[in-house]
Amino acid sequence: MKKVLVTGGSGLVGNALHTVINESTSGDEWIFVGSADADLTDSNATKALFDRIKPTHVVHLAAMVGGLFHNMNNNLDFLRKNMQINDNVLQQSYEHDCAKVISCLSTCIFPDKTSYPIDETMVHNGPPHPSNYGYSYAKRLIDIQNRGYYEKSGCMFTSIIPCNIFGPHDNYKPEVSHVIPGMINRMYDLIHTVKDLPEEEKVFVVFGSGKPLRQFIYSIDLAKLIIWVLDNYESVEPLILSVDEEDEVSIFDAAMAVAKAFDFKGKLICDTSKADGQHKKTASNKKLRNLLPNFQFTPFEDGIKASVAWYIENITKARK
Ligand code: NAP
Ligand code: GDP
């Protein structure tokens, strides 16, 4: 029986894992921790957590996380905090003889100038997009460190590379959020708090040109894939966990899906004075498809509908 410690257990992906675990009948023990349980930038606090829990396996999700604008304004913090957290968690996992650690990279960390589709072999092939170099280099170092532990002691510390994630329990804080929770929060406010206009005359602003392309994965799908990786994937090499290339959508398409889920009757315009970030990061999920051919991803619009419904139902407790 495994004893699985989930760092970042209070976040978007941590909550999705919790939901999926609750629905499963596995006999494993799962412990979900957030920053209130231990500040993982602190090596003593991290050691105390591992001494107390004594995990056999770790799903390492904890990180300083945010969307394009949060990254652009805080590159140094993203670099330092994430390097500290990752070093503390990986070293404690090593010292506690954990049989497996799965850490999270992101398709954001791939080189800016690259050929497409991007695959797992390309993580270190060139500088990342300048908007998020702090997060990117800290995340790339996880892969380097995993290889170091493997070389030194044969540890099965691996990494997954999700595309842009969305779902219930997202972070909706406007200055921090990724595009989907950011738009859900702003559209809800436009519909419910702007009272002096009929809805048909309201205008929703999509930041940037709306033209960048993104692959989005529903958090519950990602949680199911993480459990599969925990039970079945035995390699230090990173694994991209993304929807298919054909499922990539433009930011404007994503805004329209959010508007449809809210049944918003107003107009959508783009504010091109705001940054677009990287135009696209199209990633290949061929390696995943070869290993797990029959996985069914939740259709994008269904995931958006469920996420909007969750936000409306949980408006008082959502992180915003
Ligand atoms: P999230 O919702 O922002 O949650 C972040 C988690 O990290 C929270 O549980 C938070 O704890 C914890 N945390 C942050 N700083 C900490 C610290 N100093 N000590 C201990 N815990 C700390 O993030 P997420 O979207 O679930 O992301 C999970 C993983 O996926 C991350 O590694 C992220 O880099 C990666 N990822 C995310 C995306 C995306 O689109 N969201 C895409 C690709 C990869 P508290 O909330 O309790 O403070
Ligand atoms: P990325 O996928 O890592 O680049 O990060 P985001 O999830 O923050 O997506 C950024 C893209 O969405 C950029 O092209 C932004 O201009 C666009 N965007 C449109 N509206 C919003 C919003 O409300 N919040 C955020 N974060 N981005 C938005």
From TrEMBL:
Q: What is its EC number?
A: 1.1.1.271
According to the entry, every stretch annotated as the NAD-dependent epimerase/dehydratase domain falls at 4-236
GO molecular function ontology, one term from the record: isomerase activity
Q: Pathway, per UniProt?
A: Nucleotide-sugar biosynthesis; GDP-L-fucose biosynthesis via de novo pathway; GDP-L-fucose from GDP-alpha-D-mannose: step 2/2
Gene Ontology biological-process annotations: 'de novo' GDP-L-fucose biosynthetic process
Keywords from the UniProt entry:
Isomerase, NADP, Oxidoreductase
Of which family is this protein a member?
Belongs to the NAD(P)-dependent epimerase/dehydratase family. Fucose synthase subfamily.
Question: What functional role does this protein have?
Answer: Catalyzes the two-step NADP-dependent conversion of GDP-4-dehydro-6-deoxy-D-mannose to GDP-fucose, involving an epimerase and a reductase reaction.
Recorded protein name is GDP-L-fucose synthase
**To which species is this protein native?**
Ceratitis capitata
Q: Which gene encodes it?
A: FCL
